[in-house]
Amino acid sequence: MVLNSFSDAANIPDTTNVTWLASWCKFPFYNVNFGFRKPLWVGCGFVSFKRGMMLLDDTKGNAVEAYATMGVKDVPYFEQDEDIKAFAT
């Protein structure tokens, strides 16, 4: 299921298995200056989704930071996944 707008999320039934994915890569967040210098680090803040992934460029623009949200019962599976561990630092 692909949503046309974020407001469509309110109409998703609770029985639907949903994983959110968003990428803010290549957005020029580190070039923004509000008058008190450019940001040292950009993060996505609080995300209340049970299952989701947010991708952002790192401060130098040569790597990607991934923020994952999940239910408590899913954390051990995520932590033990060999593919995840191969890319995590």
From TrEMBL:
Protein name, entry field: Transferase
Gene Ontology terms for molecular function: acyltransferase activity
Keyword Acyltransferase tagged: yes
Entry keyword annotation includes Acyltransferase: yes
Source species of the chain: Helianthus annuus
Domain of life of the organism encoding this protein: Eukaryota
UniProt keyword annotations, A-Z: Acyltransferase, Transferase
Record-stated family: Belongs to the plant acyltransferase family.
Pfam families per record: Transferase
EC code(s) of this entry: 2.3.1.-
